[in-house]
Structures are given as C-alpha cells and as structure tokens.
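Bug #2210: token dump truncated for Endoribonuclease YBEY, chloroplastic isoform A?
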Amino acid sequence: MLLPRFSYLLRHPPPLHAMARAVTCATQPSHFHASLGIATSRHPVSLPSKSSLFCRTFHALARCQSEEMTRRRVAGVRAGQREYRKARRRAPPKSKGKELQLCVDICIEEDLPDDPEILSIAELLRLNVPMAMKLVFDGLKGSRYKTRDTAISDVGGFDSVELSVLLCNDEFIRKLNKEWRNEDRATDVLSMSQHVPGLKIPILMLGDVVISVETAARQAEERGHTLLDEIRILMVHGLLHLLGFDHEISEEAEVEMEREEEILLKSLDWKGKGLIRSAFDAETNSNFHQDSADDRKKEGSLRFYKPKFRYIFCDMDGTLLNSKSQISSTTANALREASSRGVKIVIATGKARPAVIDIFKMVDLAGKDGIVSEFSPGVFLQGLLVYGRQGQEIFRSNLDQNVCREACLYSLENKVPLIAFCEGRCLTLFRDPLVDSLHTIYHEPKAEVMPSVEHLLASADIQKMIFLDTDRRVADTLRPYWSDATNGRASVVQAVPDMLEIVPVGTSKGNGVKVLLDHFEVTAKEIMAIGDGENDVEMLELASLGIALSNGSEKTKSVANVIGLSNDEDGAADAIYRYAF
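Reproduced locally. Full output below:
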C-alpha cells in the first residue's frame, strides 16, 4: 500500500486503536509538494533505504475501499468499544461493470493528543477522502488543463487507486520537511507522490498526504474555519498536487489549480475557498500577518500548539487571584490546558503551602493530578520554603529570633496585628478582624493565639512575620520604621498595600526560583513568570519572559518584558494563551 516510509502494518479492517509501527522505508524516487500559505515547491528526491525519522508508531483507521464500501463500514468503527449497534453484514451489490476501487488509509501520528475531535475528524475523512477522489477523477475525464502534469492520465485504466492521509503535529511535519525538502520549518500539508509512470500494474499508488493538525488549527482560527473545514481544504490541496496540479510553476498554473480547488470544495458542499485563495487573502490582509507569537490563542485550542516554555512560575495574590481572592474559571481553564500540554505550572508566592492547596481545591486543581499538592514543587513564603520533587523540602530560611521578638513587642505596644508564619502554621498574640481576614479572605491557616511572646517564639521556627494595617499606615509609619529597625538583620517587602512583611536578609521569590531551577537542572531560558507585586521583581527579571499584570506595582512593571491585563481581567490566563504557546 502507501506510506512506505512509515511502513505501517495495517490489519483490514483493524479497530481504531490498532497500531502501525515503522520498520523499513521505500527506495523508489518520489515527488514532494508542500504548502504553507502559497509557498510550495516540487522536488524530485531519492529516498534512502532507511530513515530514523519514520521509525515511529501510528494509530491507523481501517482502510476505506471505494465510496460505497466506506458508507457501509464506517458505522462499525469501534463498535465494540462504543457499544454501537452492529448492523448485519450485507453482500455488496453486484457490479454491472468494472468498478474502480478507492483504497484510503487514514493514520494518526502517535504524538498527537488523544483528542476526541481529532478522532472524529479522522473518521469523517474515511468518508470524505473517497468522495473527493471520485469527484476529482470524474473531473479529469475529457478536461483539458494547460498546466497539469499528465503523468496520471487515465485513472479508469486501473483496478484500484490507493491513497494515504496522515494527521500529525508540527514537529513531525517539520522533520519530514527538513529531511525531504531541506526546509527546517513546519508546514501545513505535504504531498508525496508514489506514482511511477510507465509501470504496468493494475494499482495506481497515488501517494501520501501529510497534514499538520497544529498548523491547520492555527490557520482555521485565523480564517474563521472549523478544524474539520481546514483539514478538508488541505486534503483537497494535497490530492490535487498528487494528480499533477502545481500552483508554483507559473501564474497560469496557480489560477488553474485555485479554480479546481474552489470547484471541488463547492461541489462537495464543504466550506472554504481553497488553500491558494485563503493564503492569498491572508497575505493581502495585514491583520492576518501580525506576529503570531503575540496572538491570543482561543480557550480550548492549546492542544494544537507547541509550548514555548517548560515551566510557568505564577504568583498568587494579585495574579492568579482576582480582587475577591478567587481563581476565576477562565484562569483555572488556562492552567488546566497548559498543564495538559506538558507545561509545569509552579506556584511562587508569599503564601503558605496549605493556603495555596485550599484555594486550588475550590477550582478542582489540587491533588495528585492538579496544579498543586503536598507532593508538587513550589516556592512559598517569599522563597523561604522551597519544595522540590515529590514535594520534599529542599530549602528553608528562618527569621532572626531577635527581630521576631522586637516585632512581637512592637505589635503589643502599638496594637498593630502581627502574624508569624511557621511553615504550615500561623501564630499571633491577639485576636483582630484583620487577623481573621487573613484566613477568611486570603485562605491562610487560621491563626493560633499565643498567650505570650515567649510562647510564640518557642512554638516553632519562624520564616516571616506580617504586620496588618491600613494602606496609609503601612506606607507612612510601618515601612519607614521597620526599614530602619531591622538594621541589616532582616528585610521588608510588600505583596499587597495593607501588609508589611519582615523576612530574612536576601529573601526573594527569585532566589527561591533559582534554588528550584538548580534542583530541576533547568535554565531560566525555559521559564515564563507572571506576577504583580514588588516581591515578584527578581522572579520576573530571572525568567526568559517576565509578565507583570497591569494592576501591579510600578517597580514590577518597569522590569517586566510585557505588561498584561489586570488580575480582574484574567490577566494570567491571557498571558498563557498569548505568550506561552
């Protein structure tokens, strides 16, 4: 059959989950056609006997043999798994004359996601491809094309025609494009002819059409098509190339092939103008030619895009959390999608780990298969506690005991609420509505009231302390006082305007992120970071792409590569959809 370079081992008919493993490759010459937009070339090449690229695994759908047989057999695909009602087999109607058999294999490259939409499209192609083949063959009869290569002239002279269609990802088609056409880039469709003129055999081995689903998804989004529409357009384009149409050899050839695409799509009642016309429209419309790296992908479409980063480090307050201290459904979906594509979402926050887990539980993203759990990595308490693989502690820094004592005494004397963070516990010296709000609003562990300063200091190691007051008193009184009082023994930072944090000298999320990157043996070039507060500055500076939300501090925005939407506008989700893929 076809796709010899993929050397599938197809059973007829196999179930949808059947596999095909590449073993050997063809040695006969082939012609390749490719298009990305309207840039297409045709190169005769000699195939080597083996290719490491194609020692791969493919999911193969059952072969379609003629349009009539396809109609009868498609309902039985995976009948056992899907519990479809199995229809009684009927003998094919007796043919009055010789019937041309159209044999089509639809394959799905193994690295494509196991996505219901892709499987559905693959099943539809089992019907659609033979329909398109029959129509285009009928159109060749008696037609006089000025530019078409007539190496395939009389299709009716064969007993059967064989064609393979492979759905793959960008990486696969890029490698294929580089190996066979010496172009190191992904493209939308490759047509690879198997026809050998003059070879007297009853089978017309038409060739292979390879389609990148990822590129097709992007083009569909740009052109207002569904993914099925775009894949049909690419399949028609590839099929016409295999039949000798080549739009790149001359303007006349381009017009002739463009007209044939439009006629074929219209006759089949499929949407779209054809690949050549769509690409031309895109080139003449500047809106379609903005940098795609800055275009926001649609929610639900990330499965068709390649991640640009291995890790995304995200702040919580003012970033993932909106002004109501909640993760919106849009942000939750973006995190879920990015994670499903293999991107590791790592939380880097001033919060304690239990607080973060509780927040993510509310959007069903906590636990083993979620974003955060007791077994996931993360940077907490402004980088004072860092957890690595399997959630094991890999770094801890505690606040100077004398500074802790002075802060406690200041709190009692000035009646300013103070909370001491001790890993997963919060300790305080007296009840206050602001203390309670840290639990009820910010989801931190409920503060335990200690009977005295000594009891508090003896209860556990303290990583940081937070004073709670009004925005104005924090800015005018607390921050100036403690900036001087710490005298190099500690530092003061702010994540939100109404809280002042006292932390060990040298503390920063950036340092915590560095510790984690060293632990993972990952470079800063592989990470993207999203934050808003001045405690996010070092983290954003460290990352390959640092994004500050528009609600962030001016200092944070001044060091960011990009200023995004606000946290109340789902800025973190927008950043993921716009820049991470």
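Output looks complete on our side. The chain has three domains: 101-280, 311-396+508-580, 401-503. Marking as cannot-reproduce; reopen if the truncation happens again.
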